[in-house]
Amino acid sequence: MLGWSEEMMSTWQHLKPDDQTPLPPKGSSILAVNYFFAYVNSTLPLFDQRRFMERFNSQYSEDPPTSVAWYASLNAVLGIGALVLEDEIGVPSTVLHPRQTEEGGGHVLSCLRNCYSVFTQLSYSCREVMGVQALIGMAMILETLLDVEAGYMAIGSAARLALGLGLNRDCNAECSTGEVDERRNVFWVLYVLDRGLSFRLGRPPTIPEEDIQISEPASGKFAHLVRLIRIESEIYTRLYSVRARDPDRRSERLAAEDELYQKLLAWQYSLPYGELRPGQVLHCPNPEQLPSTFTLHAEFYNCQLMLWHWDIGAETSSSPEDPRWSSKCRACLAAARDTVKLLDSLREGGELFRNNLARRLSYYPLCAFLRLFINILLNPHDPSAFADLDWLRVVLNTMSGPLLTSSSPLALLLFEIIQKLTKTANDFIVRTLSGEANETGPPRDFASPDVTGHEVSSTIGSAFGIPRDDHTLGSWCPHLPPPFSEYAVLSYGDHAPTQEQRPLEKTSQFLSHSDIGASDTLFPGYESVSSEVQGVDSGLSSPSLHRGWQNPPTRPDGFSSLSPPS
After folding, report:
1. What is the mean pLDDT of the chain?
2. Are residues 355 and 497 in the same domain?
3. Nearest 5°: phi and psi at 75?
4. Residue 552: which domain range?
5. I need a labelling partner for 454 at 20 to 30 A (CA). Which of 153, 237, 480, 511 fits?
6. In angstroms, rounded to a whole number, what is the distance separating the alpha carbons of residues 381 and 384?
7. Is 460 helix (H, G, I), strand (E, B) or coil?
8. What is the DSSP code string of 2-31?
9. Tens digit of pLDDT for each residue in 418-431?
């Protein structure tokens, strides 16, 4: 697991009251606050803007608020807003904080340090909703800085405080309409982040579903996101929990997959037709709409990756020759490719590259990257292996900017891992096919693409001559049959792994002989070769995300765009 660096540890260790960094001037602060509300709070409505601005104006008056929760909340908003502003206009975050000393680090870490200076009070003695908001804001900064472990602990503290305050229950008779809406939004933002951070680490969430009474948001993109995350939570409970993984519950898991797939499909078609629905052209003339729309699409494909995970239910009898297992593999890979296409659209827009949005959602393309990487090692002879290698290079190229310019000390390490895995996949294909060429005929010249950060163009054709236009968004997921019914075999071809050596064992064996090291050291999670690392924040500016994306053909009512092609 990627651990704490000395720089990150200094953010919260040995804090004293005089260690708090003074707040920036009001003119600098208002920039960060405005960016936060325009491009982050619009996706995850953590604060009521009117109430927040009332306190913000009081902060720069002769009688500033003295609440510890407000102090931490303000610093969290300033930190997140500064990250967005820095990425979009290229202004270093220290410019927003002219009184910052060199020893204190960057502005974002200074804001986080200020939050940590009151963490004990927030966790042990705070009894107000703003304390929950402050802890959530801390978790969002930590997620941005790729420190998911620390974010997991912060969101856990926020969840326990929220449950203590009864945010999970309705309070319509006790609160005003504005307070009811704010409490509801805070709880569901907490729910979304709690599920996201927990599932990425392969751990159960803090808030149990059985104790949720408060109603969901009524409408809007956030309401769609909440409903999708609740489906994802059910996927975890019924397929990934310790109880669900009992070998005696295999038939229950198979039935759950079919039911959960139908729920996911119903959610997709509950969205209005157009750019909001996953699988459609994504074009957002209004930059403020981009983060929320992009998040919905990425989370939808992530649910598919979780639902069609290769090894779920494969402990005993599943194999590559099993039609159900084969169709799940195809669906998982389709979701992974769609995720990378979604990321690639940021570059194809032709405008200012949105490091912040890519960093915020980096978990999704990195998870897809690992799925495609494993498939290349399992099936180097598959015709899709060349194109999948090209998609790995797209992830490497597109994420190099967000990772190499990140304020996180962990980002460079993550970039080096992606770079190493991309080169490993390329070398594996070249070595495999070169060996076959030596056995069957004259040597063939396999050119190895130069895998180097920014210099790899994601808009060029495949390094192996595979046309990129052949890959369209919204690929199919299988309409799986009942567990024991007849079903047509959807195989990878003649070169599938044998039953004697299970697929993930084959991958682990290859990695053990490479110079990467033990895979479970780099990617701990649900199983030995699959885990994910992530980041958070959002993007700005007007994108044009339609180039290279295709609308699916018109389909009759009741026909699923995720079903196998006829």
Report:
1. 74
2. yes
3. -65, -35
4. 317-566
5. 511
6. 8
7. coil
8. ----HHHHTTTTT--GGGPPPPPPHHHHHH
9. 999 999 999 999 99
